[in-house]
């Protein structure tokens, strides 16, 4: 599955002639629907070939090789990807041949441009990033790895035990000592489990969800290092001795989704507060201005709409407005398939953050899922300093 470092690596591929092909496909869960999907992909690839008919011969040849590779890769591995979104990226002259399943719908499309189209990958990272689950009780812990609909058991940890505390001994003193010893062993078990989880998370960008009985969850979370606690994205109650892997997957996914929605609402509220103080902007044009000047600390995508625009060949200025020349430097403009994707890529490369709030009910003016903010704007940006707004 895709991770943030892979996206950053993909952004390093760039062909000035625009011969980088990105094919995104939602593979059906049922094998009987594969043929129909492949026909649709063939039609999209044929449309892309037709759109490139006026390109230089070398570009047409590169794109033809790329189309052949993505089509063959899809046909070869399609049954491995049932029920997943898939990104197939190719640029033969750059040595780029990537096929990546993602656990989130990607909307079937073909894009040819100067670099890989990464917006669906960034969206998948936000909505369906793989994570670890730890189910804890006072003597045992179970660790799972979850990627979309798949769940894998990683390990089971068992702490030291004590004898049955019902054997109280003389005047109850042994009962007190036994219970005190049991509490100390539980804390030791939680600390050991927390250390194991810390090592797991240090090697990747995965989040953490914790399950178990309520008391055990509270006791365990209290033992987590600060760095691990910041990766905690949800908790859920489950009986460790009757749970199934399916229970863990479903309950942890619900817990993570609840926390994600809460996070998205907080981000949108912060955007609104900062916009009132001149430290956030909404809309393609205003966000483009912030990104053009390297002032976008965070880009928030509030809709899944594709927004066409233009990129200056000379200075790199992005604009949604068609014009004969760049309004900034007078250089020639080239069409861009999706300005939102270009804004996302540049913010990542500038060291900023990207967020998606396109699944929150009530996120925008209409109150419907996927609705957007002021005047139906699809993106907002938190800026590092106040900007002079562009003329509308």
TrEMBL record:
<dbReference type="InterPro" id="IPR042226">
    <property type="entry name" value="eFR1_2_sf"/>
</dbReference>
<feature type="region of interest" description="Disordered">
    <location>
        <begin position="358"/>
        <end position="392"/>
    </location>
</feature>
<dbReference type="Pfam" id="PF18854">
    <property type="entry name" value="baeRF_family10"/>
</dbReference>
<dbReference type="InterPro" id="IPR041202">
    <property type="entry name" value="BaeRF_family10"/>
</dbReference>
<feature type="compositionally biased region" description="Low complexity">
    <location>
        <begin position="371"/>
        <end position="380"/>
    </location>
</feature>
<protein>
    <submittedName>
        <fullName>Peptide chain release factor subunit 1</fullName>
    </submittedName>
</protein>
């Amino acid at each position: 599955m895709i991770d943030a470092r892979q996206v950053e690596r993909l952004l390093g591929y760039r062909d000035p002639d625009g011969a980088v092909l990105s094919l995104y496909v939602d593979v059906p869960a049922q094998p009987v629907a594969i043929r129909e999907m492949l026909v649709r992909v063939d039609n999209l690839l044929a449309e892309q070939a037709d759109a490139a008919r006026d390109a230089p011969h070398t570009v047409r040849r590169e794109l033809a090789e790329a189309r052949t590779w993505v089509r063959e890769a899809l046909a070869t591995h399609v049954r491995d990807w049932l029920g997943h979104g898939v990104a197939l990226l190719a640029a033969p002259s750059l040595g780029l041949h990537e096929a990546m399943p993602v656990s989130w719908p990607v909307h079937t499309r073909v894009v040819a441009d100067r670099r890989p189209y990464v917006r669906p990958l960034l969206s998948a990272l936000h909505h369906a990033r793989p994570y670890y689950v730890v189910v804890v009780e006072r003597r045992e812990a179970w660790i799972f790895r979850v990627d979309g609909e798949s769940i894998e058991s990683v390990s089971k940890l068992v702490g030291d035990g004590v004898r049955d505390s019902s054997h109280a001994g003389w005047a109850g003193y042994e009962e007190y000592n036994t219970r005190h010893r049991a509490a100390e062993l539980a804390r030791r078990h939680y600390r050991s489990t927390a250390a194991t989880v810390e090592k797991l998370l240090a090697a990747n960008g995965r989040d953490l969800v914790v399950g178990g009985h309520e008391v055990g969850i509270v006791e365990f979370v209290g033992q987590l290092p600060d760095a691990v606690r910041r990766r905690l994205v949800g908790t859920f109650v489950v009986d460790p001795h009757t749970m199934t892997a399916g229970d863990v997957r479903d309950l942890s996914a619900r817990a993570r989704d609840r926390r994600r929605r809460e996070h998205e609402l907080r981000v949108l509220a912060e955007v609104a507060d900062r916009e009132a103080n001149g430290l956030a902007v909404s809309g393609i044009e205003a966000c483009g201005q912030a990104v053009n000047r390297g002032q976008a600390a965070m880009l928030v995508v509030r809709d899944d709409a594709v927004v066409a625009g233009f990129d200056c060949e000379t200075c790199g200025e992005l604009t949604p407005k068609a014009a004969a020349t760049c309004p900034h430097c007078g250089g020639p403009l080239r069409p861009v398939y999706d300005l939102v994707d270009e804004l996302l890529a540049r913010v990542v490369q500038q060291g900023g953050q990207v967020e998606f709030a396109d699944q929150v009910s009530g996120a925008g003016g209409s109150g419907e899922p996927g609705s957007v903010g002021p005047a139906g704007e699809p993106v907002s940006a938190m800026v590092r300093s106040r900007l002079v707004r562009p003329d509308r």
